[in-house]
Write a structure and sequence with these properties.
The chain has five helices and two strands, in the order E-H-H-H-H-E-H. It is mainly α. Keywords: Plasmid.
Length: 121
């Protein structure tokens, strides 16, 4: 099993929050809360997203090398869980409740970086 570097990141990584019905102030507050959550456990969101992807790949292929070994450490599993809950963290920071939203109103957090958004020069 390969471990994931908790500080692995793309240069100039930033978070994008899609939040239907949210004000610009809510979006800033939500993004700050998500960064705070990752900083509190000293892991970069990019590393947490990698852990979530590893977990999804494992679930899709049901591949465990035949020895029952889960591909993530317990700590990496916690990172993946935090990544999946990032939208809820943002909502809570803005006084919103996940249960009160319709399916098309979920808040989602994604990673992006400047050369992907604006293109390489």
């Amino acid at each position: 099993m390969n471990t994931i570097d908790r500080h692995n990141q793309k240069p100039d990584t930033f978070l994008v929050l899609t939040a239907p019905g949210a004000s610009q102030a809510d979006i800033k507050r939500g993004i700050a809360a998500v960064w705070d959550a990752f900083n509190a456990i000293d892991v970069h969101p990019y590393a947490a997203a990698q852990a979530a992807l590893e977990q999804e790949n494992f679930a899709e292929t049901d591949s465990n090398d035949g020895d029952g070994v889960f591909p993530l450490t317990e700590e990496e599993y916690q990172w993946a869980t935090l990544w999946r809950n990032a939208g809820e963290i943002a909502m809570e920071a803005c006084g919103r409740k996940y249960d009160a939203l319709g399916p098309d109103q979920n808040w989602t957090v994604e990673l992006d970086w400047s050369d992907r958004v604006f293109g390489s020069t």
